[in-house]
Amino acid sequence: MKVHGLALVGFLIAVVSCKAIEECRENEPFTCGNTDQLSSKSFPEDFIFGVASAAYQACYKSTIFDVEGDKGRGLNVWDGFTHRYPEKGGSDHGNGDTTCDSYTRWQKDIDIMDELNATGYRFSFAWCSLTYMTISNHIIMVCRDQQFQKGKIGPVMITRWFLPFDETDASRDAADRMKEFFLGWFMEPLTKGRYPDIMREIVGSRLPNFTEAEAELVAGSYDFLGLNYYTTQYAQPKPNPVTWANHTAMMDPGAKLTYNNSRGENLGPLFVKDEKNGNAYYYPKGIYYVMDYFKNKYNNPLIYITENGFSTPGEETREEAVADSKRIDYLCSHLCFLRKVIREKGVNIKGYFAWALGDNYEFCKGFTVRFGLSYVNWTDLNDRNLKKSGKWYQSFINGTTKNPVKQDFRRPNFSFQNQKKKLADA
């Protein structure tokens, strides 16, 4: 009987441990090593797992390239912004003039995606590039032909951020232009042909009106929603009367955003350490709530997660930057809740694109942070290889434990003492 009892105890502990792995955790420690428990095989068969990049952040701006007749791209508003206000482009005065140069090293990036076994690539090109499309078209053709052995590609983004730069417009701060974009990019115009009531009430005459023809044209005009998700914040009341000397679009809602609750507690693990502006924290379950909200609010639209990622300090050594276990924690915890909301709520999510394919220029941060699943050597741009997070994502996509990460099976809610009665009853 004693031997039988010990065997029963061992079996029950194993069951509880496996169950704990299946559960999504809202805080550290996360269990990311066992991709047999959480992998692409846990998602619908047609679900796309890919990586993302963006035009200005990953490509040189130079207009002197002549690759197969491609003369490069024209200047855009971010070129003007970072050159006029270099300190706002990043504390290192970084900008898109020189970055990871996917423009000419596209084959290397495709090779990395092939190594990842990615089934999709979300990249973008700017409006000012539409007359210089040879390289972008070539990337699409190569991806289509190689198919990453899965036959998937997309979505390609034509981004609104990078409007052509007009010299007569140089005096306008790019932030003002972005403000106009943010005010004009909401879901209700796409679903109802008008701005939401609360927005029209707050913004008033500053908000343009749609004509009947425009409303009919825009309502229901989207094919899918591409949602970028990074962090969740608490919102606290903070009336913001309009004073044009310092008014920004973020003041219009009359709310203060914070990563701390009313008791001063952080909502989750550290996302970005910033002694000057305050630290940022992330909350993995936030992606669950956001996806559920869009399902219920907008009649379960087709959704792709077009960006989700984690930054590490740019001053780290190569060894430190490659050993990016925190990025693994971030990705796996969000993917766990993404799987959970699909299973429990039936949200129509069909793809996930990790940000980013490789280290690149980051808006307003320059090269002081790294977001890539692959490491880019800024002194030798041909030197770009998967970090540990990239190898973890590779294992996740493959559904194997080829690159296991050290696991921690401890759970604060599992106590052997608390299980005594259950074991005795069994």
UniProtKB/TrEMBL annotation:
Its main location: other. It comes from the Eukaryota. Keywords: Signal, Vacuole. The keyword Membrane does not apply. The active site is at E307. The keyword Signal applies. One of its GO terms (molecular function) is thioglucosidase activity. It is found in: Vacuole. Transmembrane segments: none annotated. One of its GO terms (biological process) is carbohydrate metabolic process. One of its GO terms (cellular component) is vacuole. It holds the Pfam family Glyco_hydro_1. PANTHER family: GLYCOSYL HYDROLASE, MYROSINASE 1-RELATED. Belongs to the glycosyl hydrolase 1 family. Homodimer. This is thioglucosidase.
